[in-house]
C-alpha cells in the first residue's frame, strides 16, 4: 500500500510525486505513454534537444525557474533580435524597433489600446482564487471572446491583431472560448503584454537541455521508477484506501493524485461517482488545438537577413513562427504553429501535405531558402491521445461559472493536479504550482490519518 | 607628395584612407589624439573590451556590417531579454511583453501614434540627397522639434515619451534642434522605430572585440602608420597640391580629406577661404552632449530579477541605461547615458560627484546591488576636445536650409567625410559610407589629373 498513486508523469504529476517523496511518503507514478513529460517533448537534432511541446519560461514564473535550478538545468533567452514579419494575404510587412508594432492606422492602435485597457481593468476585478465568483463573472462567462470583441473593438485591424494574439496564446479561436476564461487567462499571466510577449513576457527563456529534461530528471530521481505504458482504466475508492487499475496491475494507495487534463480524466472509470459538478466540468473542458513544427536549416539565414524569426500569418497554414536555434547555435531551426481551426484542419491531412504546405508558407515569409530544410519534424498535438490537445483546456461560455469550483475540489481520496488547476500561469509553471499544491494537500491528509491511526492504536 | 592627406583617424578617415590605398594611392593619415577611433572608444575590462563610445550596428547598416566582416570581427546581439523600467519622479514602472510600452493612457498612445504617423509621412517627403531642398523644408527648418511637438502632440505623456526618444537618439534637447533635422535624422534611420529600437533597430548588434577595434584594424593594415598626436593646424591650398601643417611637420598631398566633425574643422586655419556657406555651416553645427558610463558588477543581477537592463528616467542624472555585459558573459556591466541638458550639467561637476549621482540613480532603478559596482568608468564626451561632443552634430533651426549644400561640397582640393556628411545612418555606418564617398571623389579627381598629366607629357 503506497501513500499516494500519481496518475500521469507530466510535469505536474512528477512534481506531486517529487514533493511527496521529499516529505518521506511512498509514491507510485503511473504513465500511459512510454515516456515521461506529458505536454513537453524534446526532439534530438544533432545532439541538441529542441522543444516540440511546451518550452518557455517567463520572468515571473518562479515555480518552474526554481525547479530548473534545482535540477541543474541551464537556460538561455529566446532569440528575438531582428525585425518581425506580418503576412496578411499576399502582402508581407516587416517591422521592428522601439514600438515593434505592425503598421496599422493610429485609429486601430487607439482601438487596440482601449481594448487592452478594458481587458486589464477587467482582469484586475477578478477574484484570483475563484474568478468564476467575481462580480461580473456571469456576464463575462455568458459570451465568447469574439462576442466581446464585436462589442468592444471597432476597427478591423485591431480585431485582427487581438484575435491573432488570442489564437497564439490559447491555441483556440476567439469564438470558441469564454470571455471570462480569456480574461482569467490574462490575469494568470499578469497582463496581455506579459502573456503574449517574448522580452519581459512568458516566451522569454528556453531550457538548454530541452523542457522534457525537466520531467526526465524528476523521474530518474524518484526511488521507484515511473511505470510507463500503463494507462489507468479505473479508480476504486475504498473506505481508507483507493485502488488504481491498469491493464497490467492494480495499485493500492491511500490517496490518488490525478494529473492529466480534465478531458482525459473523464475517460477513467470511477467506482464512486465524482459528483455532477466534477463530471460536467470534465465533459466541458475541451483542449486547445496545436500542431507544432520544428524545421532545421543549414544556417539561421533569417538572422543574416536582419529577421528575428518571428512571423505571424493569416494565410491559414501556420499562424506564427519563432527562432528555435539551439543555445550553442549548432542547430539552426524555426518553430512554427498551426493553431485553432487551422490546427484542426491540417491535422486531418497527411504528413506530406502538411510538410508541403508549411514549407511553402515558410518560403512565403522568409524566402526560398526556407523551402529547403535539413530536417522537418512535426507533432500533431491535436490528435495526441494522451494529452487530448494542447496547450491547455479552453472552456467555452458557461463552464467556469457553473463548475469552476470543481476544478481543485477533492473527490473523496482523489486530488487534482495539472496546469488547468493552477492559480497562475497556465503552462509549465502552472503545472509545477499545481503539483506542489496537490502534494501539500495529500501530505496534510496523510498526516491527519497517521495521527488518527496512532491515536486509535494508543 | 602623397595622393591624399587624411585629417582624422576616426572611422570615416580610416575608411577614406583604406579605400584610397586599395585603389593604389599613397596616403598619410594625421590624427590629433594618441589613439585612433574618434568617437568610438573601447575600454578593457578583465580582458574584454566594452564600448564607451559609438557601439551599435542596425540590421540595415550594410556599410559597417560589411567592414566588420572584412576585418574578421565578431558580432552578437545587444541583450534585451527581460522587462524594462521607466522612472518618472519617485515612481518606477516595470513593463515588457508583446507591446513593451509603458502604461500610459490610450489617449496618450493615440497621440503618440498620430505623431509618429505624421513624422513618417513627413520624412517620406524628404529629398534623400538634399533634404533642405524638399518642398516643406523651409517651414520645417524654421522651428525646433519642441515647437513641432507643441503643435502636434496634445498629451503630456506622449510629449514625454517622444522627447525621451529624441534625447536618446540625438543627445540633444527637443528645443535645441531643427525639426527638419530631426525628421531627416529619422529618415536616415528608416523610421522612428528603427532609429530608436533594439530588436530590428539601430541598437541591435554589438561587436565582440569592441567598436574601436574596427578603427585599430583598419589603421594597422595601412602601409604608412597613422601619425598620432599631430593635430592639424593649417591647410594651405596651392595650385596643384595642398600642404597640411601640424606642430611637427608639413605634409604635402594632391588632395585632403577632412574627416572630423564640422565644428572641429572650423578650428583649422585655411589659407584659401572656404567660402561663406562652408564657414557658416561649420559655425552652426554644434555637437550633441553625452556622458557615457560603464559600470561593472560581480553578476548581471538585473537579469536574474527578470530585467533587461533597459531603463529610462526623467530624474535628471542618467536618461537611459542598457545591458553592456561582454559577449561571453564574463564581464557583467550596465551602460548609462547622461544626455542633452543633463549631460552638460554633469560635465561641470567632478568625477566623484558624477559617480555618486549615477550610482544613486542606478540603485533607484535596479535596487541596492547597483550601488556596489566592481568598477566604474566614464567618458565625458561633452568636454572631449577632439570630438567636440557626441554622438553627432545637431543643427538648430535655419542651418540646414541655409548651408546644407556646403556639407559635402568640395572646397578646392579639400573633400569632406565624417558621419555628418552621410546620406543614411548618422553614426558608425554613416561614417563608413562617407569615407567611401570621399575616397571615391578623391580617386576620380586623381584619375583625371593623372590622365591630364600623361597627355601633357605625350
Describe this structure in words.
The structure is a homodimer of 458-residue chains. By secondary structure, chain A is of the alpha/beta class. Among the domains of chain A are: 2-38 and 60-69 and 209-286 and 393-457, FAD/NAD(P)-binding domain; 103-197, Guanine Nucleotide Dissociation Inhibitor, domain 1. Chain A has helices spanning 11-22, 62-70, 106-124, 137-141, 145-152, 156-170, 179-188, 192-196, 212-220, 262-265, 276-283, 301-304, 340-347, 351-366, 399-403, 428-457, and strands at 2-7, 27-30, 42-45, 48-51, 75-77, 83-88, 91-95, 205-207, 232-237, 242-246, 250-258, 269-270, 290-297, 307-313, 320-323, 332-339, 375-380, 414-416. In chain A, the strands form four sheets. In chain A, strands 1, 2, 9, 10, 11, 12 and 18 form a seven-stranded mixed beta sheet that branches. In chain A, strands 7-6-14-15-16-13-17 form a seven-stranded mixed beta sheet. A two-stranded antiparallel ribbon of chain A has the order 3-4. In chain A, strand 1 (2-7), helix 1 and strand 2 form a beta-alpha-beta unit. In chain A, helix 1 (11-22) runs parallel beside helix 9 (212-220). Chain A is globular. Chain A starts with a strand and ends with a helix. The relative contact order of chain A is 0.20. The model of chain A has no long low-confidence stretch (mean pLDDT 95).
Amino acid at each position: 500500500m503506497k501513500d499516494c498513486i500519481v496518475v500521469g508523469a507530466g510535469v505536474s504529476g512528477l512534481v506531486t510525486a517529487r514533493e511527496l517523496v521529499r516529505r518521506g511518503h511512498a509514491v507510485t507514478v503511473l504513465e500511459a505513454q512510454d515516456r515521461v513529460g506529458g505536454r513537453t517533448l524534446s526532439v534530438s537534432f544533432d545532439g541538441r534537444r529542441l522543444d516540440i511541446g511546451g518550452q518557455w519560461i517567463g520572468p515571473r514564473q518562479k515555480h518552474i525557474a526554481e525547479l530548473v535550478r534545482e535540477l541543474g538545468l541551464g537556460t538561455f533567452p529566446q532569440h528575438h533580435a531582428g525585425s518581425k514579419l506580418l503576412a496578411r494575404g499576399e502582402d508581407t510587412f516587416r517591422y521592428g524597433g522601439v514600438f515593434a508594432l505592425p503598421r496599422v492606422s493610429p485609429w486601430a492602435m487607439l482601438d487596440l489600446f482601449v481594448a487592452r485597457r478594458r481587458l486589464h481593468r477587467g482582469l484586475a476585478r477578478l477574484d484570483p482564487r475563484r474568478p468564476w465568483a467575481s462580480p461580473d463573472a456571469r456576464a463575462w462567462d455568458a459570451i465568447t471572446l469574439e462576442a466581446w470583441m464585436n462589442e468592444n473593438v471597432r476597427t478591423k485591424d485591431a480585431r485582427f491583431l487581438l484575435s491573432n494574439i488570442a489564437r497564439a496564446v490559447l491555441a483556440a479561436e476567439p469564438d470558441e472560448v469564454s470571455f471570462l476564461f480569456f480574461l482569467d487567462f490574462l490575469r494568470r499571466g499578469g497582463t496581455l503584454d506579459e502573456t503574449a510577449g517574448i522580452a519581459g513576457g512568458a516566451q522569454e527563456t528556453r531550457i538548454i537541455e530541452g523542457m522534457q529534461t525537466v520531467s526526465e530528471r524528476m523521474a530518474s530521481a524518484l526511488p521507484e521508477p515511473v511505470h510507463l505504458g500503463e494507462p489507468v482504466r479505473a479508480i476504486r475508492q475504498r473506505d481508507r484506501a483507493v485502488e488504481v487499475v491498469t491493464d497490467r496491475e492494480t495499485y493500492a494507495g491511500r490517496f490518488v493524485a490525478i494529473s492529466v487534463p480534465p478531458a482525459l480524466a473523464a475517460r477513467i472509470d470511477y467506482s464512486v461517482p465524482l459528483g455532477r459538478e466534477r463530471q460536467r466540468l470534465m465533459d466541458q473542458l475541451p483542449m486547445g488545438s496545436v500542431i507544432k513544427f520544428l524545421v532545421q536549416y543549414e544556417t539561421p539565414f533569417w538572422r543574416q537577413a536582419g529577421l528575428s524569426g518571428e512571423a505571424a500569418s493569416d494565410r491559414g497554414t501556420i499562424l506564427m513562427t519563432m527562432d528555435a536555434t539551439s543555445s550553442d547555435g549548432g542547430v539552426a531551426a524555426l518553430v512554427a504553429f498551426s493553431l485553432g481551426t487551422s490546427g484542426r484542419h491540417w491535422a486531418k491531412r497527411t504528413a506530406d501535405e502538411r510538410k508541403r504546405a508549411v514549407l511553402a508558407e515558410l518560403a512565403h515569409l522568409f524566402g526560398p531558402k526556407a523551402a529547403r530544410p535539413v530536417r522537418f519534424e512535426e507533432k500533431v498535438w491535436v490528435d495526441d491521445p494522451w494529452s487530448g490537445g494542447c496547450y491547455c483546456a479552453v472552456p467555452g461560455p458557461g463552464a467556469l461559472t457553473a463548475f469552476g469550483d470543481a476544478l481543485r475540489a477533492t473527490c473523496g481520496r482523489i486530488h487534482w493536479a495539472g496546469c488547468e488547476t493552477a492559480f497562475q500561469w497556465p503552462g509549465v509553471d502552472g503545472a509545477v504550482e499545481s503539483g506542489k499544491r496537490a502534494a501539500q494537500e495529500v501530505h496534510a491528509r496523510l498526516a491527519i490519518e497517521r495521527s488518527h491511526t496512532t491515536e486509535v492504536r494508543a
